[in-house]
Amino acid sequence: xxxxxxxxxxxxxxxxxxxxxxxxxxxxxxxxxxxxxxxxxxxxxxxxxxxxxxxxxxxxxxxxxxxxxxxxxxxxxxxxxxxxxxxxxxxxxxxxxxxxxxxxxxxxxx
Length: 110
Description:
Oligomer: single chain
Helix content: over 70%
């Protein structure tokens, strides 16, 4: 007996409910950006939430890499490069070589 669920629509409803709350937990913006980018493929909503995440956590180098990935997928190479460069700068300060490397690889693929 096959069993199926529509997890994407259930997650979307949960995320939208959290984002519509009077007080949004800033970490929710990253969750929403990842969801819309990876699962829902709604790049516009993904980018809006990624930008809100970077405002909420301005030193979050991982968030700027996510933003760069979304911008790259949208075809905005200039913005993707700028976000990746911001990731590199912040990751260098944080001594996180992995994110520095990933951001440089993203730039090389633009």
